[in-house]
Amino acid sequence: MSDEILNPIVYLNYLQPSVANEYEVSRNVCLATLGALGWDVLSSIPEDWQIARTSKPTPVLFAYFSARTCALVVVLLSVLLRVTGPITQCGVFALTLCVFWVIASAASSYLFLKRVHAVFLKGRIVCHFFSFLWFAGCGTSFLTLIGPLNDYYEIADTKHCIGSGVADYVSAAFIVPGLFDTLVFLAITIQDTRVTPRVNA
To answer: CA–CA separation, 190 vs 3, rounded Å?
Structure first.
C-alpha cells in the first residue's frame, strides 16, 4: 500500500486521525466563539459609543475597551491560525496572538480588581491582597510568550499551522488569573450577603 498523500492540498491528510480530530474540534470552537463574540460586540456598539462619548478618560475606561478589543483580536487570530490560512510564519503569528491574550487578560482582570476596590473601599488589607494577586496573574500570563516561536510549525507545505504541545508550566498563566477571578467573585458575593441584610433592616 502506498503512503502517498492523495490530496496534498488538504492539510488534515498530514495529521494522525486523533490529532486531526482534535484540530477540527478546536477549529469549530474558535468559529463558534468568534460568532458569539462578534454578536456581542455588534449588539453593544450603541452602549459602548455612549460610554466613550460621555465618559472621561480613566484607567478603567481604557481597560474596558482594551479588554474588548484585544479579546476580539485574539479570537480573530485564533480563527486565522486554525482555519483559514495561508500562514508561513506560524511561530510569529502565534506569538502575536499570545501578546494580545496577555493584554486582554490583564485588562479584564483589572476591571475585577477595581470592582473589589470599590466594594471594599475601607478594607485596605483586602485591597492590597487582591492587588498582589492581580500583579501575580499579570506576571504569570507572560509565560505564554515563551513557547509560541518554537511550538508552532507549518503542516507540511499547506500554509496551515499546528502546535507541538504546551509546556506544563504554561498552565500557571491560566490558573493564577482564573484563581484571581474566582476569589473576586467569592469576595464580592460574601460582602454583598453581609451588607444586604443591614440595608433591609
So the answer is: 62
